[in-house]
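Predict structure. Chain length: 517.
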Amino acid sequence: MTAKLLLTTLLPLVSDLSRELPEGERYRRLLEAMRTLLPCDAAALLRLDGEWLVPLAVDGLSTDTLGRRFKVSEHPRFEALLSSPGPTRFAADSDLPDPYDGLVDGLHDHLEVHDCMGCPLFIDERPWGLLTLDALDPERFEPIELDALQAFASLAAATVNAAERIERLANRVEDEHQRAEVYRQASGQQSREMIGQSKAHKRLVEEINLVGGSDLTVLITGETGVGKELVAQAIHAASPRADKPIISLNCAALPDTLVESELFGHVRGAFTGATNDRLGKFELANGGTLFLDEVGELSLTVQAKLLRVLQSGQLQRLGSDKEHQVDVRLIAATNRDLAEEVRSGRYRADFYHRLSVYPLLVPALRDRGRDVLLLSGYFLEQNRSRMGLNSLRLTSDAQAALLAYDWPGNVRELEHLIGRSALKALGNCKQRPKILSLSAADLDLPNGSAEPAPEPVDAAPAAVLVSGDLREATEHYQRQLISACLERHQNNWASAARELGLDRANLGRMAKRLGMK
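Prediction complete.
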């Protein structure tokens, strides 16, 4: 490597240190410069987050890699790289499993023999993450190039440190995370991450950060399975109340009498079985956040009592005349159209307006483009770890199928699909594979957003389109299927939704999108 090449490659990065650049572009330039200095087939920048490595940028690896979260203790190569003060080059015949096995673009076989090296990055003398390089030629990286990687790693650390996001992570997020973690564990909630790069997802994150800093009541709306509870947790984490608890209640899971007891608490003898005084969710959330999921299911009676608490901050436990003062930030979520519920008389207008101070719509998965692949990578890595596999990946036709599908069940449906498909695919293997690849056939996705219901004998089969745009053909088929189902059920939308395996509200939204309502 010549000094001129080194200088030519590094000078733009040095110049970038003083420039405002989007995070993704800054990291893309970093990997591009590294591949100029050290030609390879795949490169990645990963941030260390507790016991996990989070990919921030990849080059030469499949898109879903960005959605994966690698648990360091399950990947010996990552452990070795992080435990070394400088670059490490693995022998071509190393028996340590490679985390990127099956993820290199254009390569569908195992990475049996290849060249692999990496280097830890340090910020303020603390381990921050890793740079990794893989080459299919087992002699690509000569030992002398370890010095070049070390020099590059020092500049990479400076680049990372210059990024505003990394500064926030280094200076603030760790402390906030630790303070909030105590309450997450106490309430039995697992810390989860919001994953996505689409414009719709980024707009959502911007709104979360905006409203998170306030104390406004937020009404989160969106279809079933989009992750409304995860959004509520993110709002709480972005708020001044992040070091206080977030307490959740699913309003649809309890009858009215128990909902009141759960919300406001009760005293001994308030009702049969009340053998002790008990705090309600409001008092447990005092100083923090109360998240009411499925708030559209509350009865008019409970709505009236909740309205009083929200207006005055005072509540009475069931069976008690004593007033208790609480300071709670309320976040609510529903998949119902509450404005329509108000118009129909099933919901109090004053309570609805009290809830919807800041309405926040969570986009459907079908509106998030290639985020489906990042989320797939996250769920693939979860299942790979759970099933004890070296690698769990998607074939190109599986990726295409995921992108083409309409996702009526959204992220929850994707999570279940990946888990179910991985288990079935493994069960079909005669011998346990090193790499388990999920194909489109393994995913077994229907052509439309709802699985075709079995046609009765006297029903005319839907016309088959053999040409034209795929989305137009899919929507045409959906319209035919829904129309036939509604006709069989005399336009009873609830019955039609049950036959189609959909939530009634989702069926209504789908019909509206298809121009049927």
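Summary: The chain has 19 helices and 15 strands.
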